[in-house]
Design brief:
heterotrimer; A alpha+beta; B alpha+beta; C alpha+beta; A: Ubiquitin-like (UB roll); 2 domains; five-stranded mixed β-sheet; 5 strands; C: alpha+beta; Aldehyde Oxidoreductase, domain 4; Aldehyde Oxidoreductase, domain 3; seven-stranded mixed β-sheet; Carbon-monoxide dehydrogenase medium subunit (chain B)
Chain lengths: ~160, ~290, ~750
Amino acid sequence: MSKLHVTTTVNGDEVEYLCDPRETLLDCLRDKLNLTGAKEGCGTGDCGACSVTVDGRLVCSCLMLGVEAEGKQIETVEGIADGYVLHPLQKKFIEYAALQCGVCTPGILVAAKSLLEKNPDPTEEEARYWLAGNLCRCTGYDKIIRAVMDTAAELREAS
Amino acid sequence: MDYHSPASFAEASALAQNATGITRFLAGGTDVLVQLRSELVTPDTLIDIKKINGVHDITRNSDGSWTLGVAATGAEMSEHPELGHDWPGVVEAMDLIGSTQVQGRATLTGNLCNGSPAADSVPAMVAAGVTVTVTGPEGARDVAVENIPTGPGKTSLAKGEVISSVNIPARGENGGDAYLRFIPRTEMDIAVVGVGVNLRLDGDIITEARVSLGAVAPTVLLVEEAARAIIGTTLDDAALDALTAAASAACNPIDDKRGTIAFRTEVAGVLAKRTAKIAYARAKGEQA
Amino acid sequence: MALDHRKSIFNFVGTRPDRPDGLDKVTGRARFGADAYAPGMLHGAILRSPHAHARIVRIDTSKAEALKDVKAIVTRADFAVLPFKPGLEGEFWNVLENVMAGEKALYDGHAIAAVAATSALAARDALKLIEVEYEVLPHVTDVDNAMAADAPVIREGAADYSVPEGMHPNVVRYHESGHGDVEAGFAEADLVIEDSFVTEATHQGYIEPHACLASLGMDGKGELWCTTQGHWYAQKYCATLLGIETAQLRVTASEIGGGFGGKTTVFIEPVALALSRKANRPVKLVMNRSEVFRSTGPTSSASMDIKIGMKKDGTITAAQGIFRLQGGAFPGAPGDLTAMCAFAPYDLTNVRQVGYDVIANRPKQAAYRAPGAPMGAFAVESVLDELCNQLGLDPVDVRLKNAAAEGSKASYGPTYERIGLVETLEAAKAHPHYSAPLKPGQGRGISCGFWFNHGGETSVSLALSEDGSAQVMVGTPDIGGSRASMALMAAEVLGIPYENIRVTVADTASLGYNDVSHGSRVTYASGLATIKAANHAVEKLCERAAAKWGIPVDAVKWEDGCAVPSGPNAGDFDPLPLADITADMGATGGPISGHFEATPEGAGVSFGTHIVDAEVDSETGKTSIVRYTVIQDAGKAIHPTYVEGQYQGGAAQGIGWALNEEYIYGEDGRLQNSIFLDYRIPVASDLPMIDTVIVEVPNPGHPFGVRGVGETGIVPPLAAIANAVSNAAGVRMKQLPMSPPRILAALKEK
């Protein structure tokens, strides 16, 4: 089976890989680029654990082919922190215990960051609907939503 | 599986025309990839149409009508400053599909071509009188949305045919549309019932109406009896009762994991009533 | 256990520091089951039965084997073939039969064969070339149907000694318990209500699918990395099923992406090891979501009959329950636990409970958070609510009137020690939620819930470093922040900062045996063992100080991280900090460590009371949860934030179970909803904030008073929500989930 060559940018780094056209972007991130932060929780776009942004747009990397990444700008959970400095969302998630097992956390952080970039002052309801595609089975979402809302407030004060 | 990314619809059509085995077009991929990964459908030929010029464009034409590229995503539709003002029902119906993440990829055309009777955007498009342009070996033709699906997972598109644009009519004066669906949760579900209503008023009187039902029959329905129930009325209680009855009477649903025949039939009437009220308020220029 | 070092005033316990695995988990660095890779690694995939019940006539793997990318194919013939374990019995046999079908496929999704190939795609492609000839057999998936006289027999001889004669062979275990005379009790009642209830099977729904990386050489030495709640269990079962010696298999637990009971057993791990042994290369095996739903541990479905008698003043005169649980094609449905828990919150003179374990053509049930208890509570607390409604009594008052307390004889036999049920009910009564006004269309429900909690075999090892820091090795995978709790307890004993302690979940080669992280046992049992191990190290620290000072060791006490002379020597020497003792420990007697191994028996039972407000759309039957409050006795909350998290998570899972989650089987016996799109767990927009009240009635069986908190939180929600929905809708809901079609149908029949 012939593989396709893809050049793309992940977290600011230009990378290349060869992929079967059936392989998803998630497969390529994890198995070819060793970026295992994004998780496969369902493979059907229902759980959001594989969330990344592509050219600034929040998507499920399990619902995009690796070959479609050609020439795109991809951001994953591994790129959220600025070097040694955690993103405010990352700090708040630890502070609020907004994670238990932590397997949904990478996707939720990517999605929440995308929310706050688009809507710096979300209502609780807006935050809950934005994150409805990110399943968490441990927390009941309470502490996640509190962490997101408090991060939003803190970022608004800082700006 | 062979992957192609043609530069034109003519090229896409020719690739499909000459392909053997199973062919799928790839826009947002939110159905195609699910079917691929679950090994329900493994295409022999996958034709990615996103590299064709203009497929992401959302354009208001000089006559007030709209032309949407076939890769315009739900997110792009929702973020458009004017489309949702003209056609809030169509935009909201698209926006109901899947998560924020799915909205970043999913398209009207994909939702239509997937052929699901429960597709959220389709009743809204049918109510709005949307057509699609189909490019094929013989050239291009316009087809009403209600004539595309022919059954669950099936469409009227012939081999080599590909939808190349979505055409939404001009909104015009005193019109309003709305779409509501029933799902057990608040998000992330497939519609158990969906209702699209589009209407126009003269004063308080409804002069034109289109009512469309989803998930209650093998294809999305355009229900003329339901429209007749409210045309010529002010959407008073008697009209709403008649609409409810007509919507329920039009249902020919199945019992499945998502709902029962009795439930779908009953709730189709309830939602028709609720949807019509929203469309009516919008036609009156009221916030709804 | 000896109750030495009992404490009630704490320096560290009860604070809320950041969790030690937080940074890794917010940066994507934490390594879960599927995040491991090995040189030369192959990818595995499993072929699964499309039939609910079928004899496997023939498996032809030749076409798949001919593919150049395929390196090994295994079937049942590749298990337990070596000389160590010629025949397997009991649960070993059940697990073997479940991980790879023998003569029959027993449910839709049952593993038939497995492939290891050079890529995941190649492995899946190869599965399509394996030909299996099935002789399809009659099947049954419903619990009541499985007990009916004409039900197909799933496995002859599966029933144990407990089953009375004359029952269908699909009834495999029977439990009966209670005390008093229920008939006399019913005769004393002013009102007796008898009703039947049904709950569907649900899945634990952890977001991380099962995943492992296995390597097993021809020398019988193996390595296994897997996502599990118990890697010693995985070690024992994998070794037995593969026919190797337990100690030759080293198992490392990855970070675990949720378990809730469903990762207390093995599924793919023995298969990956068998593939690795055959291919002579490491094999990674990862389930997809559909495999998780079709083939791993759902909970049991249940059919229940409840009869309760009550006097006008709210006194329960008698209670009886019959609980039939279907747990898939193998013994194990916790009908006994359902029966034992159902009436446990109440001090009853006359009580009788019967539990059935029934097999059917479904996947082997696995534990799910207080296994068996939520469904029984749903049935019993629904009848209590109906009694309160019909007698015009306040539901909290009635529960307080009948509440079990210290000295009460539990419905399941023992006499309670100090318990906190009354305190949770009093907190419920006093909570603003309980008296808040309701809007039209809304209803309020309350329910109590009980869970035993568990001790289990436990080993902990603690070692001090020269710089005065401490490492703690525990054997219970951290499923809810337990490393933070262990560090807090160790800090409390050692008197050194939380940050100076690192807690590691050790692999099976690095620590003695540990039971699985289940039964809400980790903070209790590993916590107790951590305290004991720290005490053990403190004894040695005191010995070193005594030697240095030249005084008897019993004249040295440990205070705030220092050895301090006491008794006649008090004040003779300056306090000697831990780090000063460890700095030269090599010269004063060698490394200082502590360890503890035991099976602690003092896990305190726990109770909770939940309050929920639900709103029902009378035209569509759709329910919204508008307010939710969890009140539960934690004994002592070591890290209160994580205790709250357990309460909230249990409530959220209960909301899903009550409203929308269910296994749906078609007439063909195939699972209809094996993806998250149709298996509807709550999403963020479905839920309100979930308020929590931590009640602390110390457990006398733990040095710091800890009771387990993980499971009790899922016991009351089904009933509390059913009561709220029934009160909102004006019709009693007796079947879960209370999906909109069921509620609308009930409203129509009202």
